[in-house]
Specification:
The structure is a single chain. By secondary structure, this protein is of the alpha+beta class. The chain has one domain (10-51, 81-223): Nuclear Transport Factor 2, Chain: A (Roll). The chain has helices at 19-37, 88-99, 109-117, 129-133, 139-147, 163-171, 176-179; strands at 102-103, 151-160, 181-194, 198-211, 219-223. Helix 1 (19-37) crosses helix 6.
Length: 229
C-alpha cells in the first residue's frame, strides 16, 4: 500500500521553476514536442532506446540493465558518478535514479549539488543547470531533512522516448545532428525513510534532456518542463 510522504521530498522540490529556461535547452531538437507538451498536466511513461544514425527515428526497446553508475566521486557525498554509456535511455534512467536518491546522513547539500553537477554536459549552450539544481531543497529545508536523517533510494522501472519526440524527429531527422539531445521519460518508485522508523514510497516520473554525441558518453542537459505519452 502506498503511504503518504512528508513534505520534505527531494524529488518533488523545485517543480515550480519557470519552464522558459528549460525549453531553451531542447528547442533546437524538439520544438514540436514542447508545443504539444505545454498542454499536458501529468507525467507518464514506457521504456525505450534509440537507433543509431541521424535519419532513424527511435524505436522502443528495453534499456540495458548493465548501465550501473560508478561509486561516488570525492566531495560528492553519496551521489554516484555518471555512468560511461552512450545510450540515451540507459543514461536517462540512471540519471533519474540519481535524482531520486539522496542521504542527508552522509551528504551535505553542497555535496549533493556537486555530485549532480558531474552528470551535466559541459556544453554551456545546452546545459540548463537551474532545472537540475532546482530539484535540491534550499539550505533551510535540507537542514530540516538532515535533522530527521532523511534518506531515499529509487528504483527506475522503465524509460522511453515520448511519442511527440519520435514524431518530431521523424519529420526532421537532421534536427538531432546539431545538438544530439534526446528527450527521455523515466518512471519508477522512490522509497523515503527518516528517524524513528518513518518511511514511505511514492511513484515518480521525470522527463530529461540527454546529450549523446556520436563516439561520446551521454551527459545530462536538463529536466524538461513536461512530457507527452
Amino acid at each position: 500500500m502506498q503511504k503518504r510522504l512528508p513534505s520534505l521530498s527531494l524529488s518533488s522540490y523545485g517543480m515550480g521553476w519557470p519552464a522558459n529556461r528549460r525549453i531553451a535547452v531542447i528547442a533546437l531538437v524538439v520544438g514540436a514536442l514542447l508545443a504539444i507538451a505545454a498542454t499536458v498536466a501529468h507525467l507518464s511513461g514506457g521504456e525505450g532506446s534509440h537507433q543509431t544514425g541521424a535519419g532513424a527515428a527511435p524505436t522502443p526497446v528495453h534499456s540495458p540493465s548493465s548501465a550501473a553508475s560508478p561509486g561516488p566521486a570525492a566531495g560528492s557525498g553519496s551521489v554516484p558518478g555518471p555512468p560511461q554509456i552512450a545510450d540515451p535511455v540507459a543514461y536517462a534512467t540512471a540519471a533519474a535514479q540519481m535524482l531520486w536518491s539522496y542521504d542527508t546522513r552522509d551528504s551535505s547539500r553542497d555535496q549533493q549539488l556537486a555530485g549532480m553537477r558531474a552528470w551535466m554536459t559541459t556544453e554551456t549552450t545546452y546545459a540548463d543547470w537551474a532545472s537540475v539544481s532546482g530539484q535540491v531543497p534550499d539550505p533551510v529545508l535540507w537542514s530540516r531533512m538532515t535533522d530527521q536523517d532523511q534518506h531515499a533510494t529509487a528504483h527506475v522501472s522503465e524509460g522511453h522516448y515520448p511519442s511527440a519526440f519520435k514524431q518530431a524527429l521523424a519529420e526532421d531527422p537532421s534536427a538531432i545532428t546539431e545538438a544530439y539531445i534526446y528527450v527521455v521519460t523515466a518512471n519508477g518508485t522512490q522509497q523515503i525513510a527518516w528517524t524513528k522508523g518513518g518511511s514511505g514510497a511514492e511513484e515518480r516520473a521525470v522527463t530529461l534532456a540527454v546529450q549523446c554525441r556520436p563516439n561520446h558518453d551521454c551527459t545530462l542537459a536538463a529536466i524538461a518542463p513536461s512530457v507527452t505519452q
